[in-house]
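Thread: "does anyone have the structure for this chain?"

Original post by V.I.:
We have the sequence but no experimental structure in hand. Need at least a predicted one for the grant figures.
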Amino acid sequence: MAEPILYSYDFSPYAFKVRSVLSLLNIKYKVVQVDMVMPRPELEAIGVNYRRIPILAVGKNIYCDSQSIIEYLLSREDARSIVPAGSETSQLGLKVLGDLIFRTTLSTMDPSGSPPAFIKDRASVFPILASGTLEKDPSIREHAIAEVQSLFTAIQDTFCSNGKKWALGGDAPSLADAHVAWAVRFVIKGIKLDQKEKVLSKEALPRLHDWLERFEQALDLNTPTLTGDEAKKVVFDAASPTTQGLGVQNGLGGFQKNQKVSVSQSDADPTHPVDGQLLALDAKELVVALDNGLHIHFPRLGSKLSKL
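Reply from O.Q.:
Generated one for you, tokens below.
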């Protein structure tokens, strides 16, 4: 496998989740720092117009969105080391829990404290931040804080009960911890909500905070960086990706392999579509080939596919 390159910015909670999985799997990679909002010349340089971060380049295969990236990483043979046998159902539930914490936390944020360009960029994905609703109705924030407190208490009482160190027990963190830690970290280390709300503080939830600290200490996040130009050279110097095994599942929207298509996010304004040739489509993933030879991988969930 070519050494992966992660396009990321430090504040991104989803990038932290991907970096956690990379670290748990002991995969060496490099990072290209990009801006929080479009435009991102480092990605434009390789012909990628996708707006969500992180994005992972593995040779000429480009994985967009944390869903697609983690699905790819879990397809590797060594992924079994962080997914204990029989834990598949628990993993799905914990993934949903992490997403729920993040979505709930958005209603606790003060939009006036964020750069206007950031709020404008996220308006179509997270309307609560730009609608003015939070400023007009403080009870929304109060309710969201109570819900985060309830979720955090449940995590403390399950992950950290009876002397357990990790979500599924054992001596080392697993994917189960990563599925939740990124969202908890966003609350505590990202927007620092625990410093404003005592019910989320370390005094109120000591075992939860200790678990998060243990998880971060177990990771190796000291990764080398590349400039956009350096990453571009690595990507385009890589071998051409294989199309073996790629195909379009019958009955999915009437799409055909090699058809010209456009991909955009289903939960946002389609202002940054990616156009190309459809190589693969099933219930989990779709793959599009660009004219420059790159294969762009998207999660099927959350991606809108249109014929050109």
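V.I.: this helps a lot. The longest helix spans residues 138-159.
O.Q.: and The chain has ten helices and nine strands.
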